[in-house]
Amino acid sequence: MYKNRKKNYPYYEVRPCDSIRMLVDSSANLFADKDAFRYRKDGSDRSVKYSEFKIQVDCLGTALYSLGIGKSHISVIGDNCYPWVLSYVTCLISEAVVTPIDKELSTEEIANILVHSECEAIFFTNSVSKKIEEIKSSLDCIKTFILMDGVASSVGDVKNVDELLQHGQRLLEEGDTRFMDVVPDMYGLKQLVYTSGTTGKSKGVMLSQDTLCFNVVKSQELMNITERALSVLPYNHCYEATCGLLTMLHHGMTICINESLRTILPNFKKYKPTEMQIVPLYAENFYRRIKATIEDKGLTKKFEKGIKISNLLLKIGIDKRRSMFKDIHETFGGELVSFICGGAPLKSHITEFFESIGIVMINGYGITECGPLISINRPEYYNFASVGLPLKDTIVKIYEPNEDGEGEIIVKGRNVMLGYYKNPEATKAVIIDGFFHTGDVGKIDKDGFVYITGRKKNLIVLKNGKNIYPEEIEEQLMDIPFISEVVVFSAKAADLNGKALGAEIYPSYEYASSQGVENVEDEIKKAIGEFNKKQPPYRVIKQLVFRDTEFEKTTTKKIKRTYDAKAE
To answer: To the nearest 10°, the Cα dihedral for 502, 503, 504, 506?
Structure first.
């Protein structure tokens, strides 16, 4: 079990990753008989060994060349499943450019991305068949449709992965080496990822194979990757695709594919993961459910006493956390060592809570334009308030810092994108003198830890001249247990007119019910009144807006800040 060190320690040794082809081939040699994937299909448990995965990649890749799309732009869209990974990795090894697409997008948005990315082929799952059918007639660019899960598709004239695997195997046996002979282009366009930011239109981020491989190696130098991962985040997102698939395959992990949100808890018990990549919303939900269960059972005082005893034992080198909090560990399968959390800053009290029970919450920082990783806390050297240490061989700086050392975070290194696809103006606006300007505001401390305090585009400038990063206040308000989600904004009430702050709140109705609270809005008003007493005048919340539905979110569960809050 991990324990925080006072000083940094040497990087972990990592074998080379000179290309995605090398990644797959070397892992097949090193971990041949080990399960690369475990998952459920048609009601039964399945597994794929590392040696089998390589064979299937070679078969599918050979089939793609026989279809004439081995050098095309190809999209992958649909549910997380084994064929999604197989199709994605195969495209990376081929001469194709792969475009993962968010299945939750509207048909119009999907069609726009397919056209803009110049895709000629598409891998999809049955869950998006209706969307594909609706836009198929308008997509003259798409010549090949490939279904990843079965044959019962409403889209006509469709290939399927199983048939292509058989076809590719026959071609390999006959001596077709077109896919096997591909020489990797490490620095050209390999992957197009369309951003799903909280504001503005998506842009096509151009990533090279070198950037992906750089992320794979450098992340492992900082991290101590374990044995089994429960894979839950959308594969179209760069964080899960690079760090949750490619990196884990390179390391030789067993990736257990989760089917849906409903199966997460049963799959903890089934697969007994040792680690899991998540975003803050998952961490917050786990935290709240554990706390609510403890309160419902009347065990709060006993639990808090246990934490104090455990912390005292840790000071003298005795670690009893796994046995003292056995019931909580069993909820996560009993073998979980760490959560790796990215996508947005994580509240420090949540990381402290999980460490106190013996599960390290490793928080990191990434952005699609950096493929995605920029910094991460280490398993045994971390700072709860930070997003960790920069990757080795990258330069992370604060651009034009203010008197507190705070300013825009900029990055230079092999993790930086090639640019935005067919958008040189947008590229020039963010890559200046070799540095990528992230748009995130933060600071770096004397030990090199990076902190994020907000987004430039979310900055609130009050009419009294005060600058407010709403994320800082939102984090504090989220400590109020009756608040489930909150967005701070410049108050628009007639008597305030942009001179004060407002907060739009989605209450935690579930928590309020568990506490016997009938009017949750009144409880929140009281709590915010107490919050306001401790704030300087310009940070006081003067306008409240309550909502009865969750905020709209991106696929990585970040709130889209595109609403127009109105007064009650």
So the answer is: -160
Using CA atoms, how far apart are residues 310 and 404, in angstroms rounded to an integer? 37
Tell me: the pLDDT tens digits for 107-116?
A: 999 999 999 9
**pLDDT band (50, 70, 90) for residue 159:** very high
Query: Identity (one letter) of the amino acid at 65?
Result: Y
User: Please, are residues 445 and 421 in contact by the beta-carbon 8 Å criterion?
Assistant: no
Q: What percent of the chain has pLDDT over 70?
A: 94
Could you give the CA distance from residue 168 to residue 185 in angstroms, rounded to a whole number? 23
Nearest one of 450, 443, 435 to 376, comparing CA atoms:
450
Q: What is this structure's pTM?
A: 0.86
Question: How high is the pLDDT of residue 495?
Answer: 59
Q: How far apart are the C-alpha atoms of 430 and 426, rounded to whole Å? A: 7
CA distances to 184, 208, 413, 417, 418 from 188, in Å: 9, 6, 16, 11, 8
pLDDT per residue over 285-341, tens digit each? Answer: 899 899 989 988 999 999 999 999 998 998 888 999 999 999 999 999 999 999 999
Q: Which of 339, 223, 317, 206 is nearest to 273 (CA)?
A: 339
Contacts with 100 (C-beta within 8 Å, 6 or more apart), sequence order: 75, 76, 77, 88, 191, 193, 235, 236, 237, 241
Residue type, 482: F
- Distance (Å, rounded) from C-alpha 419 to C-alpha 525? 46
What average pLDDT does the segment 2-25 reach? 94
At 557, give phi and psi (nearest 5°). 65, 30
Strand pairing report for 450-455 and 435-444: antiparallel
How far is Cα 146 from Cα 126, in angstroms, rounded to an integer? 10
447: burial class by Cβ within 10 Å (0-12, 13-18, 19+)?
A: exposed
Task: Kindly list the strands in the beta sheet with 338-341, ordered across the sheet, starting from the edge strand earlier in the chain.
Answer: 44-49, 35-41, 254-257, 228-231, 275-278, 338-341, 360-366, 373-376, 389-390
Inform me whether the pLDDT recorded for 152 exceeds 70. no
| 439: CB partners within 8 A, 6+ apart | 408, 430, 455, 456, 457
- What is the 3-class SS of 270-286, one letter each residue? HHCCCEEEECHHHHHHH
445 in Cβ contact with 496 (< 8 Å): no
* 224 burial type by CB count under 10 A (0-12 exposed, 13-18 middle, 19+ buried): middle
Angle at 111 between CA 107 and CA 115, to 5 degrees: 175
CA gap 221, 447 in Å, rounded: 18
Task: Pick 567 or 303 by higher pLDDT.
Answer: 303
Give, as one character, the DSSP assignment of residue 386.
Answer: S
CA distance 394 to 403: 25
Give the least confident one: 80-94, 458-472, 522-536. Answer: 458-472
